[in-house]
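Researcher: Go.
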Amino acid sequence: MLRMLQAHGLDAGPTQRPLLAGAMGGVIAAVPALLVLAGFQALDAPARAAGTSVVVAGLTFIGLMVLGGILYGGLFQRAANDRRGGWLFGLAFGFVLWMLGSVPLLQWLPDEPILRGYPAAGLLLAQLLWGLILGVVFPPVHRRLHAGLDGQAGSGTGITGPEAVVQTQMLRSLPSPRNASS
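Model: Structure:
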């Protein structure tokens, strides 16, 4: 595994678009998370504290989750493409984003915590759900945005392994041993 990482690395290549995939995944994941926030009435208190409406607080949440998706794509890059473990990357990232973003901004920095009780639990659940969905949708979104060397998006053939490296149309056939001896 270490040799493969040293040879190929985890940095995205010039034809990959992890930031765009993260932004798109962040939007997709923000919709169900927003429903959780609305169900727990977790947008009401921040909207009152900021002096805006719940709709503006929801749109702000979506914007912040787009930025979170960009951060996810930039941070994990090719490692986020793991279809089997992407959900775990996303879930952990959603928790870290809640812990480092939401908790200080809504609980520690103001004079009095903005969210308490069920709305605070709803924010945690929304962030975890957002991260889970982001981790699940990032690999297929990233795969669709991946451009081939010809510049076409989604030009992957689905071939993996050593066959993916060579272009079989460019190979010439070798002479058979029977014809070479005569």
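Model: The radius of gyration is 23 Å.
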